[in-house]
Amino acid sequence: MSAALVTKNLRRSYDGREAVRGVSLEVNEGEIFGILGPNGAGKTTTLSMISTRIWPTGGDAWVFGKHVVKDVHAARRLLNVAPQEEALYPTLTGQENLEFFARLYGVPKAERGRRVADALEGVELTSRKDDIVQSYSGGMRRRLNLGCALVSAPRLVLLDEPTVGVDPQSRVHIFEAVRKLRTQGVTILYTTHYLAEAEDLCDRIAIMDEGNIVALGTVPELLGLSKTSEVIELRLRPPAERVEGLQAVEGVQRVEQSGPLLRLYTSRAEELLPRLWSEPALEGRIVQVRVSPVSLETIFIELTGKDLRDE
Ligand SMILES: Nc1ncnc2c1ncn2[C@@H]1O[C@H](COP(=O)(O)OP(=O)(O)OP(=O)(O)O)[C@@H](O)[C@H]1O
Ligand SMILES: [Mg+2]
Q: For ligand 1, is residue 193 a contact (CB within 6 Å)?
């Protein structure tokens, strides 16, 4: 498999403060690769270096073998980016926006019509192509923003949080467009702070926090990093009373309590479960039990100490 993107120890400082602290990645051709991280993790800064919008202050990156600084023009021809901040002309129609970007990217005149039509089709905006962008919903604008990156027929597409603030229907369209690109052999680098999105869409995920990649792999590989493998969730009555002392019970790795819900992290749920009934702190208090495997969310909290839902 050939590499669509390689970064080695990529760094970027702003006024002496390091926003990206040595990112090394290898993305295979045809892969949907996710960068998952909270606000300020350094996702956009990483993408901006790869897309040659800003220079690295250290390290290297190659797009299909073309160095983003030394071969900048060659690298630029191979990639395109749908930025986090939309870049659209509100008084032009969807089609006119795409035509504008096709000209900007130097698409030969004879090919422009087909590229624009393909991009409209790809993001399912053909039926609204003659309406001005001002009249589009937020989700439609995000889709057009993605379409604008497609008119140059890039082999690597960088999508920076493409679903933030979009309606569920547009989210489905964006997912479909991304999956369709993969079937065409296009490589996708996708940033998000939505765990479920990374889990559903991405072949591999890098978890990023404070400028560093803290873990990288497929979802099963990331789940395997956890010290625990299951979560036992107990609903208790009376709801508000704290439960003490369970941390000491054999097989319990971590305890969390929020209101009536008690979560016990373990690698041996089937052994632990029967013992819980006779625990003095729980006796007569358990009204509901749920056992589930650890999620990407658990891994994220274990690795970063942060809860992405708070973002
Ligand atoms: N132009 C800039 N000048 C100074 N600091 C910057 C600039 N751009 C980003 N930063 C800082 O670099 C760090 C990483 O920012 P970045 O935008 O890359 O994060 P992010 O993961 O994309 O966050 P978000 O999820 O909010 O988009 C942050 O601390 C941010 O304040
Ligand atoms: Mg960002």
A: yes
- Per the prediction, the chain carries an average pLDDT of 93
Ligand (nearest to CA of 39): 1
| Residue with CA at minimum distance from ligand 1 atom 9 | 45
pLDDT tens digits, one per residue of 161-193:
999 989 899 999 999 999 999 999 999 999 999
Which ligand is located closest to the Cα atom of residue 54?
Answer: 1
Give the closest residue (by CA) to ligand 1 atom 28. 40
Pocket test for ligand 1, best of 45, 210, 310 (most atoms within 8 A of CB): 45
Q: What is the pLDDT of residue 1?
A: 57
pLDDT > 90? residue 43:
yes
| Binding site membership of 128 for ligand 1 (Cβ less than 6 Å) | no
Span from the CA of 59 to the centroid of ligand 2 (angstroms): 20
pTM for the full predicted model: 0.87
Taking CA atoms, 144 is separated from 22, 133, 228, in Å, by 33, 9, 42
Contact 205, 36 (CB under 8 A): yes
Q: Does residue 14 have its Cβ closer than 6 Å to ligand 1? A: yes
